[in-house]
TrEMBL record:
InterPro entries in the cross-refs: ACT-like_dom_sf, ACT_dom, HD/PDEase_dom, HD_domain, NT_sf, PII_UdlTrfase/GS_AdlTrfase, Polymerase_NTP_transf_dom, UTase/UR
Region (Uridylyl-removing): 325-683
EC number: 2.7.7.59, 3.1.4.-
Origin species: Accumulibacter regalis
Cofactor: Mg(2+)
Domain free text: Has four distinct domains: an N-terminal nucleotidyltransferase (NT) domain responsible for UTase activity, a central HD domain that encodes UR activity, and two C-terminal ACT domains that seem to have a role in glutamine sensing.
Official protein name in the record: Bifunctional uridylyltransferase/uridylyl-removing enzyme
Family: Belongs to the GlnD family.
Length: 866
């Protein structure tokens, strides 16, 4: 190939085939032997050879140099990574040289190399490096491929002379902090990024870039020899790097492209390649991700220790003698330090004491690298004998009773492996993923999130976020009992069986061993066993029904338990996923709490249905008087509704209906009214029209097309044949324009109901990747309702549907109900992330026969399959 003619197509094809064959061979060899580093080196060697041949074939001047930079310069080229090149010039290129370099770049693309390239003189390189930390980092790893060795040597020397190691360290540290923030400062993402995420490969590379810039070494062995890390830490780093390197290599090969996220669609295949097998309680992918999270945790821990040590070496702190705290610990530059490195070996009880001191001394803002390393090594001293020591049990309990900085303390204990050693059952859930379609954290991180939420209730600066919770916890007394309950509420996840029951047994043993007073211990155990009771009642049952409140209050027993369960429930839901909590759920829980509290504190016998109806009617009249309306506006409507209407509607809704309908009782046209939900968040829509077949299906279709989900539906048919339906709608798209949508819904829905057009069919949509790859087996149950109204018992049925969420799901359910002649009375729609748990109160002559119920269940299950 000459510089004066284009490369023949055959030559380009030959180079392309050579690269493809090399990539294929190295990939097959890796999958057979599992040596990722060998693959990365082989890929570099193959591309090195091709680049050198192209360079020489173009007869480029010998005064130039072709450099590999970045990961390619380091000699680690992943299967789908960019090939970063730097063409180094002795002086600015003339037109002839520019033409040849452009031809080189075109050839690289022609033969299939995805390159990132720059063409610069040494002065331009130094100028770019001075203003861009990423460019400077890439140049640190520059490697000469071909061309002028003297020019490359001059470049390396001047780059080294221009390096300010302390500034580089600070910039890389800030860069790492910014990168971690992009990933919410946690490696525990459902689809973790094994390169850029916290605890990923980039955290290891950042350390080596810093030490290389400072002249401390290029590998872990160099750092061990200089005393920055111990031999054990060197081994841990090498093993973690090898694991992450192999995982990223497999991910590139599986995806066939540059992909560093452990996406759902690859997790199972990766797990199987690495030899994980599914068990009765855990998927292979969950086992892989747990291993990944634990490796990432190790990387984060050693990364933090190394950054402290390297920073102290580059920028020595001011010379100040440490301030003694006691015979084992001291304050060194506002960091907790050990007086010598064998403190924990000499006195293992000091392990928990260290964390307690961090809580108790406001002037301490963390731990020295020496203290962290000593604790990391000492974690293995926590054995059964350690757990049985009364002093250690006292120290552990004091962490919770003291409370200050509790979340930070527990996170640090978890990071250092101390928490899982002291509580082995907690250690089992560290890094354990929950593919239940609504938890977005691993079990251990969820537990710590719940404790964090409880702690926020106690802080004045967050009182505006949770006013009721803040008031309740301030009067609760011993809120640390709630923290202990939160610690155990999900600790039995993944064992098989009911995690509430298993966790209850763990909590009982803990409370007994740690000497909790009988009353406090019983409360902790009860909370762990019943921690799902309140959310299930609020989201699945009709909490306006006195029978529901009565049954719930009977389980609760007293006000202290009610307050404790309410606080734990709010924290639990808030700590599950940002998507799960909304104002509607908050109001449901608050309504259930208030109604149950009144029931428990009432000195009289709880009112039966008749008493509740009288109370609601009186309150509704009072509310109507506020609008200066005639005293009798409600009479005609109330004559046409039955007792069930008053039991299922709140007094405020009853008054709203009467105000709107008092002069439109027998309107020929449908009536649609919408307003901002009084419960906070979303819209409330009332529909009043002649009852008609498939009405609910038509309403569901319309709301779905308008991008609203139904959170609650109360369906009532008056004695004179009118449908009086009320819906609470939540904006699926979170558009923040509920007020602007009121007139749209009133006008457009009225048009739909006034005409004879068929029901709106919700537009198709894609299910989430999580649902596709971790499908939830749908569940459908139909059971008779036990009602306060004796004539309803045996006629009303509770339909419960649990399924993966997807576009148009409620429309499918509504269509099946209509097809089976089922009348809908109420609907409670609970969406938990990508999972729905919906409850419907239905009736119908077909349902009174068991065969009819079985047929409806079977048809629903068929429709719900994805």
């Amino acid at each position: 190939m000459s510089a004066d003619s284009d490369a023949p197509g055959a030559l380009v094809s030959a180079f392309k085939k050579r690269l493809q064959d090399g990539q294929r061979a190295s990939g097959e060899q890796f999958l057979a032997a599992g040596d990722a580093l060998h693959l990365l080196h082989e890929r570099c060697h193959t591309i090195d050879a091709v680049l050198c041949e192209l360079w020489h074939g173009l007869h480029l001047p010998p005064t130039l140099a072709l450099l590999a930079v970045g990961g390619y310069g380091r000699g680690e080229l992943y299967p789908a990574s960019d090939i970063d090149l730097l063409v180094l010039l002795p002086e600015q290129a003339d037109d002839a040289l520019s033409t040849k370099l452009e031809r080189l770049v075109c050839l690289l693309w022609d033969i299939g190399l995805d390159t990132g390239h720059s063409v610069r003189t040494i002065e331009q390189c130094l100028e770019q490096a001075a203003g861009n930390i990423t460019v400077r980092t890439a140049m640190i790893e520059a490697r000469l491929l071909t061309g002028s060795a003297p020019l490359f040597a001059d470049f390396s020397l001047r780059l080294s002379r221009d390096m300010n190691a302390a500034d580089f360290f600070q910039n890389k540290r800030i860069e790492q902090e910014d990168r971690h923030q992009r990933f919410a400062d946690t490696p525990y993402s459902l689809e973790a990024n094994c390169k850029e995420g916290p605890g990923g490969l980039r955290d290891l590379q950042a350390i080596l870039w810093i030490t290389q810039a400072a002249g401390y070494g290029r590998c872990w062995k160099d750092l061990a020899q200089r005393g920055f890390i111990t031999p054990d830490e060197e081994k841990l780093l090498e093993d973690s790097e090898a694991f992450l390197r192999g995982l990223r290599t497999r991910l590139h090969l599986l995806a066939g492209r540059r992909e560093d996220r452990l996406l759902f669609e690859y997790q199972t295949a990766l797990a199987e390649q690495l030899g994980f097998k599914a068990t009765n309680t855990r998927r292979a992918s969950e086992q892989l991700m747990q291993l990944y999270y634990r490796r990432a945790k190790t990387v984060l821990q050693i990364n933090a220790i190394l950054l402290q040590n390297i920073g102290a070496a580059l920028v020595p702190p001011r010379q100040e003698p440490p301030q003694p705290i006691n015979e084992r610990f001291q304050n060194a530059h506002e960091l907790l330090d050990v007086v010598h490195e064998e403190v924990f070996s000499d006195a293992p009880q000091a392990i928990l004491e260290a964390f307690l001191l961090l809580q108790q001394h406001a002037g301490l803002h963390g731990m020295t690298a020496r203290a962290q390393r000593a604790l990391w090594r000492a974690r293995t001293l926590i054995d059964e004998d350690f757990r049985q020591q009364p002093a250690n049990r006292t120290h552990f309990l004091e962490l919770f009773t003291y409370g200050h900085r509790l979340t930070q303390t527990l996170r640090r204990m978890n990071q250092l492996g101390v928490l899982g050693r002291y509580l082995p059952n907690f250690g089992r859930v560290v890094g354990q993923m929950q593919h239940d379609l609504f938890h977005v954290y691993t079990v251990d991180q969820h537990i710590l999130q719940v404790i964090r939420r409880l702690r926020r209730f106690t802080m004045e600066e967050f009182a505006h976020e949770y006013p009721l919770c803040s008031r309740l916890i301030s009067d609760f007394g011993n809120p640390w009992v709630l923290y202990i309950a939160a610690l155990f509420h999900d600790i039995a996840k993944g064992r098989g069986g009911d995690h509430s029951e298993l966790g209850e047994a763990d909590a009982r043993q803990f409370c007994s061993l740690h000497g909790l007073a009988e009353e406090e211990g019983e409360l902790v155990v009860w909370l762990v066993g019943q921690h799902l009771l309140m959310s299930r009642t609020a989201q699945k049952q009709d909490i306006s029904d006195p029978a529901v409140i009565s049954r719930f209050a009977a389980i609760i027993g007293d006000e202290r338990r009610l307050v404790a369960l309410y606080l734990l429930t709010v924290a639990d839901i808030r700590g599950t996923s940002p998507k799960v909590w909304n104002a509607w759920k908050g109001q449901l829980l608050e309504q259930l709490f208030s109604a149950s509290r009144r029931h428990l504190l009432s000195s009289e016998a709880p009112p039966m249905a008749e008493g509740v109806i009288v109370q609601r009617q009186q309150e509704a009249r009072r509310l109507m008087r506020l609008f200066a309306l005639p005293e009798t506006i409600h009479e005609r409507l109330w004559e046409q509704v039955d007792t069930v209407y008053f039991l299922r509607q709140s007094a405020e809704e009853i008054a709203w209906h009467a105000r709107v309908l008092y002069d439109q009782r027998h309107a020929d046209k449908p009536l649609v009214k919408a307003r901002l939900s009084p419960l906070g968040g979303g819209l409330e829509v009332m529909v009043y029209t002649h009852d008609q077949r498939d009405l609910f299906v038509r309403l569901v279709g319309f709301f779905s097309r308008a991008a609203y989900s139904i959170a609650d539906a109360k369906i009532h048919t008056t004695r004179d044949g009118y449908a009086l339906d009320t819906f609470v709608l939540l904006d699926v798209g979170d558009r923040g324009s509920n007020r602007a949508m009121i007139s749209y819904i009133e006008h457009e829905l009225l048009e739909r109901l006034s005409g004879s057009a068929p029901a709106d069919i919700p537009g198709g949509g894609r299910v989430s990747r999580q649902v596709r790859h971790f499908p939830l087996q749908p569940q459908v149950t139909i059971q008779p309702l036990v009602s306060l109204e004796p004539d309803e018992t045996g006629k009303l049925f509770v339909l419960t549907v649990v399924a993966a969420d997807r576009p148009g799901l409620l429309f499918l359910i509504a269509t099946q109900l209509a097809a089976h002649g089922a009348n809908l009375h109420t609907a409670k729609i609970a969406t938990l992330g990508e999972r729905v748990e919906d409850t419907f109160l239905i009736s119908g002559s077909h349902l009174e026969d068991s065969a009819g119920r079985v047929k409806l269940e079977a048809d629903l299950l068929k429709e719900l399959q994805i």
